[in-house]
Design a protein that fits this description.
The chain is mostly helical. The chain contains 14 helices and four strands. It has two domains: 2-74, no CATH class; 80-304, Orthogonal Bundle (MetI-like fold). The chain has helices at residues 20-51, 71-77, 80-92, 95-110, 117-129, 132-143, 148-155, 167-195, 199-207, 212-223, 225-240, 244-250, 261-270, 274-304; strands spanning 2-5, 11-14, 54-55, 66-67. Helix 3 packs antiparallel against helix 13, helix 5 packs across helix 8 (167-195) and helix 6 (132-143) crosses helix 12 (244-250). The chain starts with a strand and ends with a helix.
């Protein structure tokens, strides 16, 4: 309630009308979203968190499973296979800087406005829209012992490599495929970033006598920082959830050399070790959250300088 003075100098109490109907309509509109969040996100999260403290195989109701406190966490954290899969996942993240360097170089070439650049943009984007099954078939054929890659090596007198049969080469092959698959999207993102840089900065630098290297290191690269940040954050999040590519290309092999954390998690599910799988999922979520939070913190600090 508010006191309002009228033209005659009298004071009246003004009671604002309560818009119950408008509020009710708004609540009704967001009600399906709230129900969806509670039913499909909040409830499964709480359910999986509770399962980490029980020895549950998924065949009986969770409420009847034995309460074991932190035993499932101890099992996972003392399992050598878990740490090996985590190391493999981290190794695949090497592809992030490699992909960023390649896509940045391609973006700078395609951003020069040369003839046929639009055609090349489409060509580079093709891997992003092609079915993953088709990509796997393509790379299996290319990496076969008698495939085209070894044929090229043979021209230069190099021995054929068992790209899919030896652990070291299998990891290299997986990283190479991931870089190639994400190159199109990364290149387009960098092109968008380059087109957002005002030409006046570049012209002013040239008038001051800056060479191409100085323009790139002191103007272009720093101004692409938002793109760099986005690429690193999304790359780490996607890399920590890597599953389809190593599973279809190598089935986690050879000798589990390409078994990522998510493949390890699904193997726990397949073996009816549901509680252990839930533990792995929560550990993975915690790692992604901490790494992402650190990146946002470091990015905010650098922007304040």
């Amino acid at each position: 309630m508010q006191q309002i003075k009228t033209i005659n100098g009298k004071t009246k109490i003004y009671k604002p009308k309560k818009k119950y109907k408008e509020n009710l309509v708004g609540y009704l509109f967001i009600l399906p979203v709230i129900i969806g969040v509670l039913f499909f996100i909040a409830y499964p999260l709480v359910y999986s968190l509770i399962s980490t403290f029980k020895n549950w195989n998924g065949l009986i109701p969770l409420g009847k499973a034995k309460w074991v406190k932190f035993e499932m966490y101890q099992r996972v954290l003392t399992d050598r296979a878990f740490w090996d899969s985590l190391l493999t996942t981290i190794i695949t993240l090497i592809g992030i800087p490699i992909g960023m360097i390649l896509s940045m170089g391609l973006a700078m070439l395609l951003n020069r406005g040369l003839k046929g650049t639009n055609t090349f943009r489409v060509i580079f984007y093709i891997p992003a829209i092609v079915s993953i099954s088709a990509i796997i078939i393509l790379w299996r054929g290319m990496l076969a012992v008698d495939g085209p890659l070894n044929a090229i090596f043979g021209i230069f007198g190099m021995k054929a490599k068992n790209w899919l049969g030896e652990p070291v080469y299998a990891r290299i092959s997986l990283i190479g495929m991931l870089v190639w698959k994400g190159l199109g999207v990364s290149t387009l993102l960098y092109i968008a970033g380059l087109q957002g840089i005002s030409g006046s900065y570049l012209e002013a630098a040239k008038l001051d006598g800056a060479n191409s290297f100085q323009i790139f290191t002191r103007i272009i690269f720093p101004l692409l920082k938002p793109t760099h940040f986005y690429m690193v954050v999304t790359g780490i999040i996607n890399g920590m959830q890597l599953y389809i590519e190593p599973d279809l290309l190598l089935n986690g092999g050879p000798a589990n050399s390409t078994r990522t954390v998510l493949i390890y998690l699904f193997q726990r599910f397949d073996n009816r070790l549901i509680s252990e799988a839930s533990v792995v999922a929560w550990i993975l979520a915690l790692i992604v959250f901490v790494v992402t939070a650190l990146q946002f913190y470091m990015n905010s600090r650098s922007e304040k300088r």
